[in-house]
Amino acid sequence: MTGPVRRGGSSPVPRSADVARRAGVSQKTVSRVFNDEQYVSAEVRRRVLEAAEELGYRMNHAARALASGRSRSIGVVSLGTALYGPASLLIGVERAARDAGYALRVVNTMEGDPAGVAGAVDSLLEQGVDGIVISEPIDEGPVSLSTDVPVLVLGAPPAFAGPRAVTVGVGSDLLARAATEHLLDLGHTTVHHLAGPRRWYAARDRLEGWRAALTARGRDEPPVIEGDWSASSGYAAGRELASDRDVTAVFAANDDMAIGLIRALAEAGRRVPDDVSVVGFDDIPVSAYVTPPLTTVRQPFDAVAQEGLRLLVHAIEKPDTDPLAASDPPVDLVVRASTAPRPPRTTPGRERRTTSPPG
Amino acid sequence: MTGPVRRGGSSPVPRSADVARRAGVSQKTVSRVFNDEQYVSAEVRRRVLEAAEELGYRMNHAARALASGRSRSIGVVSLGTALYGPASLLIGVERAARDAGYALRVVNTMEGDPAGVAGAVDSLLEQGVDGIVISEPIDEGPVSLSTDVPVLVLGAPPAFAGPRAVTVGVGSDLLARAATEHLLDLGHTTVHHLAGPRRWYAARDRLEGWRAALTARGRDEPPVIEGDWSASSGYAAGRELASDRDVTAVFAANDDMAIGLIRALAEAGRRVPDDVSVVGFDDIPVSAYVTPPLTTVRQPFDAVAQEGLRLLVHAIEKPDTDPLAASDPPVDLVVRASTAPRPPRTTPGRERRTTSPPG
DNA sequence: TTGAAAGCGCTAACAG
DNA sequence: CTGTTAGCGCTTTCAA
C-alpha cells in the first residue's frame, strides 16, 4: 500500500475526512457540501468550505467515480489531424462539455490504424466515460459498439453506432447543395465536383448534396474527382481540370483543395472567376484573403458541437426520457470573388466565338 | 449504493473477480495478468485472458487509480483555438501520450477567461492526472502552480511554472532569426516585423529572434506592428505598410497574417516579391499554394511534442532521477516565391530613380 | 438536517 | 509462481 502522497515534502494531500475533522462535522457532510446537495445548513456549509480552503482540499474524482459509478467525463474519438473542421469541432465539444460539467478525454485515431474507432472507444470505456463523442468518423467497415454508454456521432449516418447512439448531421449535404445551386444560379451549365476521400462520411455527404442540386435541375453530372482534403491534391485536380475548356464551375469539398485548385488553374492560364468559378467549403480563416477571395460555405461547427452535446448529456442524465430532436444547422453561403457568371462561350451545337470582357 | 451496472438489460458488467472465478484463479492473479506483471505462468495467463474475453471484461480505471494513486493519464491545458500551431501540438501530444501508455484529458482556456490557466490546472489536478502539459500559454500574470505533479510547458520561459516544471522551448526564436536572416541575406537593408499578440510567449519569442538577427548585423529596428494571428489583422497591417516605400521586407509571425498582408500589399499595387518580400511562420498546409507561394519557416510540432512528452513521462516515472535534457529542434526554412532580392531603389542620401523590372 | 456503516473494483504488501 | 488481507477516498443507504 502506498503511504499518503506528499506534496513537496510538506503536508500530505488532504482528504474529505481531514476537512470534516477541522470543520467539526462528519465526512459525509463534507461530501454533501461539495456535491451541492440540499439539507446542509448555511452555517455548516460555510465552516466546511473554510476548512477546505485552509487545507487546500481538492476532491478525488477517482474515488468519486468508483463509488458512484459515474465519472462525469465524456470521451471524444477524433481524427488525428489539424484540419480546420475536426479541430474546430473538438474545441466546440470541449467547451460544451465543460459548460455541462463534464471533463473531456480525447483519443485520436489515425487513418489506417488497425484498431481504429472500435479500439479508441474501448479505451474510453475502460476509462469509465459517461458518454462518447465520435467526431467525423471515416468508414472502416462496420463498427459495432457493444456498450450501454450513449454515443454521439457527429457527421455520420444514424446507422453508424450502437444501441444508444445519438446522431447529429453536420448538414454538409444541405450546405453542399446550396454551394452548387449558387453556381448554377450564376448561369453555369453544370458544376464539377472535387470531392474529399470517399472513406469520409463528410465527403460523401457533400457529394450527395452536389448531386442532388444537379439532379433537381436536370443537369449533367460530370465525373467526380477525388482529393484528400489537401491543397496539394486540389492542385493536382486543377491541372487535370484546366485542360478541359468545358469546365466553368467547380465545387471543392473544402477550402484547402479549392485554394490548390485555383493555383493550378491560374498557372494554366485559366482565370478565376473570369474563366472558371470555384466554391470552397468550411470558410477557413484565410479564405477571405487568398487571391481571389474565396466564395465558400461556412460550417457552423460550434452550433453543431453544442447541439450534439446537449443531446448527449440528455441521454446520459435522463436515460429513460425520449431522445431530444436535433435541429438542422443554418446554411451560410459566403459569396466572395471566386465566383462569377458563366463566361460567354461556344454553345453546344453551334459555333460562336466571343472575347471575354476585359479582366 | 448503486446496483451493478447493467448492459442493455442483459448481464452485469464483469469485474476482475468474475474473471478470476471463471478462470479458476484468484482475483489478484487476474490483476497481475492485466498489468503485465511477471511471475504468471503462460498457462494461467492464457486461461485468464480467455475468461476475460468470454466475459467481455474491461478493467476499471477509476478503481485502479484509487488504489494505486496513479491515473495513468496526462492533462493538457490548451488554448481554445483552431489555429494551426496549437492544434498540431495537441495532436502530437496525444499521440506521444498514447504511445507512452497515458490517456489524455483536455481543458481549454479561452483568452480573457478569468480563471485561466490556474483554474484549468486545478480541474486537471482534481481529475488526478499524473502530469500536466501547458501548451503555448499566454501571459496572464504570474501563475503559481502549487502541486507536486510534473508540469511540461511547451513554448514559454522556464520560470513559468511550479517546482516540478519541465520546459521545452519550441525554438521559435531560432526559427524567427533564421527567417529574418534569410531576408537580410537577400540584400534587404532591414526587415519589418508583423508580430503576434504581445500576451503570447510564442509571439515574444519570435520578436526576440527577429530583433537578434537585426542587432547582430547592426541594422535599424523598425517599429513593430502587432497583429492577432488572423489574416484579417495581417491585412490591416499590410495597408499601413504599403504606403511606406521604404518597406521592402516583412517577417510575419505566422502564415495567416502573412497571407492577409500580401493581399493588402497587392491591392495597394505593391508586388510580392518584386517590391516587397514576405516571410511567414508555421508552414500551414495552404501556404505552398497561395499567390505567391509563401516562404515560411516550418515548425517541428511533432518533434517538440514528442520530445516534451518524453521529458514529462520521465519526470513522472522516475521522479528521483535527474531531469532529461531537451534538445533544440532543427531549423527548417522553406524558401518559396514570396521572397526575392531587394529591389533597386533610392539610396539614402542620393537621389536616384530606377524603373523596376517588368513584372 | 446530520451521522454511521458498508462497500465501489482495484493494487500493495506480505505470506505461502 | 499464487493467494490473502487491508485499504484507496468517496457515495450510498439507512438511521437518528
> Runs of chain A with pLDDT <50, length 5+?
1-9, 347-359
Summed up, the helix count of chain A is: 11
Classify the oligomer.
homodimer
Q: Biggest sheet of chain A: strands, sense, closure?
A: 5 strands, parallel
The count of DSSP E runs of length 2 or more, i.e. the number of strands of chain A, is 11
Number of domains of chain A: 3
Assigned CATH class of the largest domain in chain A: Alpha Beta
Strand content bin of chain A: 5-15%
State the CATH topology of the largest domain in chain A. Answer: Rossmann fold
Helix content of chain A: 25-40%
Question: How widely separated are the two ends of chain A?
Answer: 79 Å
Q: Can you tell me the CATH superfamily of the largest domain in chain A?
A: Response regulator
Give the helices and strands of chain A as they follow along the chain: HHHHEHEHEEEHEHEHEHEEHE
Briefly note the structural class of the backbone of chain A.
Answer: alpha/beta
- C-alpha-based Rg of chain A, rounded: 27 Å
Largest protein interface, residues of each chain = A-B, 64 and 65 residues
How are the strands of the biggest sheet of chain A laid out side by side? 2-1-3-4-5
Whole-number mean pLDDT of chain A: 87
Q: What is the general shape of chain A? A: elongated
Which architecture of the largest domain in chain A per CATH? 3-Layer(aba) Sandwich
